[in-house]
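Table 4 source record.
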Amino acid sequence: MSEIATILADTIERLLDARLDEGTMHAARAGEWAGELWHALEEQGVPLALVPENAGGFGLDPRDALELIRLLGRHAIPLPLGETMLANATLAEAGLPLADGAAALVPMDGAARIAWGRHCRTFVVEAPGGVVRIDGGAVVEREGHNLAGLPRDAMHFPKTNDATPIAGRLIERGALVRALQCAGALERLLELTVTHVSERVQFGRPLAKFQAIQQELAKLAGEVAAASAAADLAADAFVDDPAKARFAIAVARVRIGEAVGRANGIAHQLHGAIGFTAEHRLHLFTTSLWAWRGEFGGAVYWAGQLGDRALSAGRDGYWPMVTAA
């Protein structure tokens, strides 16, 4: 990270540690908008972190800006900041005005329900030929929530034919957000689990001293490392060329989806019954992970994309496809 990016990340970390308390987390899972937290992060320039400085943004290196989404995932932040960051980057790319407040990505496939749709003011909607920016006319048809209890609303948007081309598809951008969030949340999941087994004493010694526990921790660490590497691959591919990032994003979503299932199971097993209680923070991360892995295309969708790519590569092209840098 650059010096500026490091300073910004440290500032955001301190802000979240101070303001994202248990009350805010649980209120958000009842549908309450964390307005003060949003405003504080907006003042730090987070929604504009991926927008070039000459387009009115923060001007960070794109890789550094994407790392902020992983940081937000480490806190399981109950706000659509990652989506707003990519929405603003998309609007800047298309030469359209930036979002006014929270924004949503609405791909043509893979987003039946919009994260915090009832609270979003700007919608970047995919249409034939590109994207359109919609501020007025969006209607919440049915309020809902995901597995973590966070708002996911069915929306209706006015039809328009005035689309502006962009590189790639919106579902890829939304999927990248979820991949990075999952990678960050998995890192925190590992930290919580290591702390618990180090402090919890059974038969006169910490759980972490038992070989069986150590083996499970090693498996958990392996899943977290694999998810982190997959997220890095997807982020690098997107920064290099959004139009060619679909394969890397599909790989990341499939591998991270596998990691979520395995890591959540291990974490809950090692925490025991306490991990399922509302009083312990573990469930805030595991439920977020379970929900995120199914948004912007779930396991079936992205596995299908990989299958299509493998079949189109053919017998002679399969191995070069797998080993391509």
